[in-house]
Amino acid sequence: MENGTGESFQRKARLTTAADFRHVFSKNLRLGDSDITILVGAHTGEKPRIGFAIAKKQIKKAVQRNGLKRIFRESFRKNQYRLPARDMVVMVRKQILLSNGMQLRASLDKYWNNIISRCS
Is there a contact between 114 and 31 (Cβ–Cβ < 8 Å)? Predict the structure, then answer.
């Protein structure tokens, strides 16, 4: 869906196949803390792509998993024009539920900046 500013989250900005995820899991740059781990793999395309591996074992309720993915997608959507053309997978741990939305967004901004500096 386009919102007029060029900040959309299209299907081609997502990792959609098991092979895409396998590629990132096998060879990656790992960034993270006690709440979030972001795996950054290679990508030959022209735009960054993102996928989520949020396990039921870590976050039991679907509503919580979906809420986290919504926050991650929104942050990625707003920063995708700055990010390098890499594939990324976001994983979380249980402690993330103790963070509020603002802390999570600040953390993601820090990670996006870190990815930009390390991949350029």
Answer: yes
Contact partners, residue 41, CB within 8 Å, separation at least 6: 23, 24, 25, 27, 28, 29, 86, 87, 88, 89
DSSP H or E stretch at residue 111: helix 101-119
Identify which of 77, 75, 78 has the alpha carbon closest to the alpha carbon of residue 101. Answer: 75
Positions in the chain short of pLDDT 50: 1-2, 4
Domain enclosing residue 26, as ranges: 11-119
Using the structure block, give the residue that is written with the tokens 């963070």. 99
* CATH, residue 95: 3.30.230.10
What pTM value is reported for the model?
0.87
**Contact residues for 25 (Cβ-Cβ < 8 A; gap 6+):** 39, 41, 89
